[in-house]
Amino acid sequence: MIETGDSESGYDPYVYGNWLAESRIKQAISEGKFDDAATGKPLESLTEYENPFLDRIEVHAHKLMKRNGARPEWVEKNAEICEKLAQQRQLLYEGFRRRHRVIRQTERPDGGFLSRWLQGTTATPSSSLESREEEWKRVQEEFARELQAINKTIHSYNAMVPMHIQFSVLHLEREMERLEERRIDSK
C-alpha cells in the first residue's frame, strides 16, 4: 500500500487535495460560475489541437486537412467498406425476397396471382420458380464474389488502423444467417 501522508499528524495530502478541489467546485457552483456552462459540449480549451500526445507537425497537418475538407485514407476506406457492404446486402435481400414471393405463390392452393398471371402463356408456376431459383443462385454467387472483394479492402483497411477500430472479416455463411434472421424479423 502506498503511504500518502504523515501517519503521526494525520495529514494526508491526497485527501486534502480532493477536499480542496471539491470545496472550490462547490463554491463556484454557489457563486453561479457554472450557470452559463455549455452542458454536453466539449470544453473549448481541450480541442484536438491541444492534444499533448500529438506532434506539432501532426497538429498542423490535421488543421490543414480539416480546412480543406480532406479525410485520411483509412476514413475513406471505412466509408467505402460500409457503403459497398450495405449495397451488396440490399441486393442479396431483394433477390431473397423475389425468390420467396414466388415460392409463397406456388404453395397457395389456388396457385395465387402467379398462376392467374401465367394463364394463356406457355410458362407454368414451376418454370417461374425454377427461373427464380437460377436467379437466386446468380445473386448468391455475385454476393460471394463481392464479399471477397470487400474482405480484401477490409484487410488493407485493418493494416492501417489501430486494432480497436478494425473490421472483422466477413463470412458468407454468417451473412446468409443474417439474411434469414432479417426475413424472420420482418414477418
From TrEMBL:
Domain of life: Eukaryota
Start and end residues of each DnaJ homologue subfamily C member 28 conserved domain: 20-86
Name of the molecule in the record: DnaJ homologue subfamily C member 28 conserved domain-containing protein
Matching Pfam families: DJC28_CD
Source species of the chain: Planoprotostelium fungivorum
PANTHER family reported for this sequence: DNAJ HOMOLOG SUBFAMILY C MEMBER 28, OS08G0560600 PROTEIN
